[in-house]
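User: Could you check the structure of this?
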Amino acid sequence: MADSRTLLSVGLDVGTTTTQIVFSRIYLKNIAPSSQVPRIGINDRDILYQSQIYLTPLATRDRVDIRGLEEIVQREYQRAGHAPSQVETGAVIVTGEIAKKENAAEILQALGKYAGEFVVTVAGPRLEAQMAGRGSGAAAYSREHYARVTNVDIGGGTANSAVFELGNTLAAAAMNVGGHIIEIDQSTMHIRHIAEPARKIIQHHNLPIRVGERVELGPLREFCNVMAELVVELIEGRESQLGHQVMLTPPMSVSGHNTKLFISGGVGHYFYHPLENVTLESVTTHDDIGPLFGLALRENKTLQYMEAVEPPETIRATVIGASSQTVTLSGSTIWAEKQILPIKNVPVVRPNLGTTANIPDAISDAMARMEIDASRENAAIALDIHGALDFAQLQNLAKGLSEYAARELPNERALILILGRDYAQSLGQAIKSFSPHRALLSIDQVGLDEGDYIDIGLPMLDGRVVPLSVKTLIFYR
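Assistant: Sure, the predicted structure tokens are below.
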């Protein structure tokens, strides 16, 4: 019986300013002691190949050049020496201002065909924050140093913050500030474009920055200083009147104040490596304000009191997280029928199964709450099981789930169950005794929230585990 194997993983990050690709090797191994039930876990990760950093191709101000993106991906696959059919996991992510483009969803559809059998396609600021914090090394640092660490990933269009402790994410949030929300034609020093969040900041502070007009260093410095203060709010979980206008999520429930600080992303590079000669020409070297924003963060009085640690990865943090940190594994006592896998973009509901709940009605209520028509689309049912289940309780739960499936699901639709505790296989067996012909997927050791989406891949290691990823699918438009 196989106890180890490797996966080839890809990360494709299409961001506000740049597009990158990374290939990783992920090592799976039985990490449980020999006397215990096998527990397959991710034992190690290696970065195999990193692409050059491309400017994200745009067809118009509001549309991404899909064909240009495809050409980038094809070129980098060839350089890396891999074929899409070899890739087993990873992520295609759309981040920052790109998630606002008219054809943002088309990016995921177009690039999915280059990304193998089981690759997550995601867009969502909180997940991006977690990916970046894992890719930068902040999560690993928090585990290895028994420290609480805040990672702030700042790119062209968004700043994403996540707090980590012992390798786990405590909170995450995102804000619509970044180094490319003002675009400048360096040849003339005229403002080429002002994104909507930048417009709000300019109006709030009455700054002399207007499209088509020449700009001076002073107003740009003031603008970047305001963005730096907004990042402080993001870190601390606060929200001013202006901050409320540029937040993409609710503030973090756990403050990053008095934690170790990692700053990643393109702007993060300039935080740790500021320009020596600050002139209008030098700070607009990328036709934007990224270098000046990095300097403003470095000079911010509040951030100077935090202990800043330079991460192993800055500009590549998100794409490395996408390549090596999105996949997890189910428990090894599962019920998985291969013919219904892989499945992608399955919404999650969490029915309230109290001690006196009518199980079919509770699940139907949860589906209605999330506006899911279970007769027409897949949905995963996350089951909260507190404490141990005896035989009678397990049978009652299985009977209720079977009754729900018979009442609400077409015969050909699978019943998909996600459990936090190790009951997936025994519950699957019990359900099959009530509904022998119902397609069934029951997996455990996975925690989900209502509103999450889940991707589940083909069984591996003799069918004992399935790879999966929990995600959000949020486009801002």
